[in-house]
Design brief:
The chain has helices at 21-35, 42-54, 60-72, 82-111, 115-129, 133-140, 158-174, 189-201, 232-246, 289-301, 346-357, 376-383, 386-391, 401-418; strands spanning 4-7, 10-13, 74-76, 150-153, 177-184, 206-211, 217-223, 253-261, 264-271, 305-309, 314-316, 320-322, 326-330, 335-341, 364-369, 392-395. It is of the alpha+beta class and 419 residues long. It has 4 domains: 15-79 and 146-161, Arc Repressor Mutant, subunit A (Orthogonal Bundle); 82-142, no CATH class; 175-285, Alpha-Beta Plaits (2-Layer Sandwich), CATH 3.30.70; 289-418, Trna Endonuclease, Chain: A, domain 1 (3-Layer(aba) Sandwich), CATH 3.40.1350. The strands form 4 sheets. A 7-stranded antiparallel sheet has the order 9-8-5-7-6-12-11, with helices on one face. A 5-stranded mixed sheet has the order 10-13-14-15-16. Helix 1 runs parallel beside helix 3 and helix 3 (60-72) packs across helix 7 (158-174). It starts with a strand and ends with a helix.
Length: 419
């Protein structure tokens, strides 16, 4: 459903105009249909949406895209219903008994759709199940997609739907990216922290640095899914989900290398002038369950330490910055950050270790997911790192207090020596 054109080495998404009366009318009517569908079944909802789309002179692909975005906001009753399986078995057994007991002529009349014989047959089957004939027809396949009930629809405006469509066009292209570069020339501290929280929430790592040629703009370089060898789909979705957070910045510039076809790459270039409005609200202080568990472990095993979300950069050599995942604060007031590297972070991990190995000591601990060291070459480089041997550890799903304990003790000792 992506709509774009290419011009030499550039790729240009085709956006809808959110201020166009034609598009606002169709978007509003679609939203109204979905809003009024709660309690109805999916088949009726899709039929009404189809009627609206057929009444407007727009591209079929655009119409399908708008409908898909609304379906994504709709919750259907997809729960497997054991009683319907039992009902079908009961009906089929009764049907088999009737057909076998009445002989071949009876079956012949059913095939010929003899109205009287067919109605008698249906009534007999329905009566054995305790339903009226019409009700049985509705109940028999009630768990199939066309008959799934609409439980909920997350409302939005027609204009909001059009902005969401334009945003999705870019997100779809980013799923096919080799890498993206985001330049932020004028982001205040609050806005910037908000953006980096989204970066961390989506388990993305960026190479963050200053570009003094552009009035000390902050530059984020993030690997794309096609630059990885594993977990490309999950990583690609995380990267796509990060894009609406970029739209919340007052000024921004994005450049991405997109590979639509195997042997040909195109450059996507966008900035705030594209006019797309983000559908994200202000990022709430969401704390994943695994981190809550880690915090609870620390309270029991390491009561002198407190885990919190990191809000500040850690400066690194070469005008580079690290925005770590968490901050650990000791009762003495000393603080050390914690940065985690997940299964798709092999390149950022090697880059970070190279930076840290050039330093004797930094207020930063490194956690590496064990899936990364399945690669023998990468494992050798990790284990050969002097910094990792002192202030690094391996984890599976999430860090544990047991893993952190020796590193925190070593880090405190190093602080005492330095002072």
């Amino acid at each position: 459903m992506l709509c774009f054109r290419t011009n030499r080495d550039k790729i240009l998404p085709k956006f809808n105009d959110p201020e166009s009366p034609k598009f606002q009318e169709i978007a509003s009517e679609l939203v109204d249909v979905f809003s009024a569908s709660v309690g109805d079944v999916r088949e009726n909802l899709e039929d009404r949406a189809k009627q609206i789309l057929e009444g407007f002179p727009i591209s079929v692909v655009v119409g399908r895209g708008l409908e898909k975005l609304l379906l994504d906001r709709t919750e259907f009753d997809t729960e497997a219903k054991t009683e319907l399986h039992e009902l079908r078995e009961k009906v089929f057994r009764k049907s088999s008994e009737l057909l076998c007991g009445n002989g071949q002529d009876y079956m012949y009349n059913l095939d010929k759709e003899d109205a009287g014989v067919l109605e008698t047959y249906r009534s007999a089957v329905a009566g054995s199940s305790g339903f009226e004939t019409g009700e049985l027809s509705r109940q028999l396949y009630g768990d199939l997609p066309p008959f799934q009930q609409v439980l909920q629809f997350r409302k939005l405006t027609g204009e909001g739907l059009l902005h969401r469509y334009n945003c999705a066009q870019v997100q779809g292209l980013l799923l096919r990216s080799e890498g993206i570069t985001v330049t932020l020339p004028d982001s205040g501290a609050a806005k910037l922290r908000q953006l980096l929280k989204y970066l961390r929430f989506n388990k993305l790592l960026a190479k963050i640095s200053f570009d003094h040629k552009k009035q000390k703009s902050l530059v984020l370089k993030i690997d794309g899914p096609l630059s990885l060898f594993l977990n490309t789909q999950k990583y690609g979705f995380n990267l796509a989900n990060f894009f609406p957070a970029i739209l919340q910045q007052p000024e921004w510039e994005l450049e991405a290398e997109i590979r639509i076809r195997k042997n040909r790459s195109h450059i996507l270039h966008l900035d705030q002038s594209c006019g797309i409005r983000s559908h994200y609200r202000q990022f709430l202080a969401y704390v994943p369950e695994e981190i809550q568990l880690l915090s609870q472990q620390l309270e029991k095993k390491l009561p002198d330490w407190k885990l919190s979300s990191s809000a500040d950069f850690v400066p690194l050599p070469g005008e580079s910055l690290c925005f770590p995942d968490f901050l650990l604060t000791h009762s003495s007031g000393k603080k050390v950050s914690l940065e985690l590297f997940h299964s798709w972070h092999s390149a950022p991990l090697l880059n970070r270790l190279a930076q840290l190995d050039a330093q004797k000591w930094m207020p930063l601990l490194i956690g590496v997911n064990r899936s990364l060291i399945k690669n023998e070459e990468l494992a050798d480089q990790v284990y050969a790192s002097p910094y990792f041997s002192r202030f690094g550890f391996l984890f599976r799903e999430t860090p544990t207090a047991t893993k952190l304990l020796p590193l925190l003790k070593a880090w405190l000792r190093n602080c005492e020596k330095t002072n």
